[in-house]
Amino acid sequence: MKNVLVLCTGNSCRSIMAEALINQLAQGRYHAVSAGSKPEGYVHPKSIETLKRHGVQAGEARSKSWDEFQGMNFDLVITVCDAAAESCPVFLGKHKKLHWSTPDPAAVTGNEEEINTAFDEAFNLLKAKIESELL
After folding, report:
1. How far is CA 125 from the centre of its chain?
2. pLDDT tens-place string over residues 105-121
3. Which residues are catalytic?
4. What's phi and psi for 32, nearest 5 deg?
5. pLDDT tens profile 35-83
6. What is the residue-averaged pLDDT of the chain?
7. CA dist., res. 116 & res. 111, Å (int)
8. Measured CA distances, 41 to 12, 38, 48, 55, 131 (Å)
């Protein structure tokens, strides 16, 4: 099984959803964890709500720093926000680095429907990347 680290800035939305999607869709082939360069310290409730709405188990998601994973070896390091891609630390070991630029749904303002749409769009973009590049 290949180990995957999904990086973002806050580790509250996109990386959390990507972690859960990889662990469910690629179960048995990949095991994913996620982290952030500046973790928010909480998982955005809409991330969990979006995963549940699409039938994906969120597990025990929590926002954490990439410091927890320094020195660990990963087969893949995937950045899902442009800021993390630019400031991604060096993870030792032989790994492939992928960047899946995903707009931040937490930055969207508006009514409930507009916010849900932003989270669904991020979810669908990440799901499509996983299906085309990992499965």
Report:
1. 11
2. 999 999 999 999 999 99
3. 8, 81, 88
4. -110, 145
5. 998 999 999 999 999 999 999 998 899 999 989 998 888 999 999 988 7
6. 92
7. 9
8. 8, 9, 15, 25, 29
Q: What residue type is 5 in one-letter code? A: L
Work out the average pLDDT over 6-31. 95
41 Rama sector, left if φ>0, alpha if ψ -120 to 50, beta otherwise: left
Q: What angle do CA 45, 51, 53 make, to 5 degrees?
A: 100
What does pTM read for this prediction?
A: 0.93
Question: 3-class DSSP state for residue 133?
Answer: helix
Contact 7, 80 (CB under 8 A): yes
Is the separation of the CB atoms in 107 and 1 below 8 Å?
no
Which of 110, 106, 124, 114 shows the shortest CA–CA distance to 51?
Answer: 124
61: its two tokens: 């998601």
Burial 120-131, CB ≥16 within 10 A → b, else e: eebbebbbebbe
Query: How far is residue 37's CA from residue 82's CA, in Å, rounded to a whole number?
Result: 12
Q: What is the pLDDT of residue 70?
A: 85
For residue 12, the model assigns a pLDDT of: 95
CA distance 7 to 24: 18
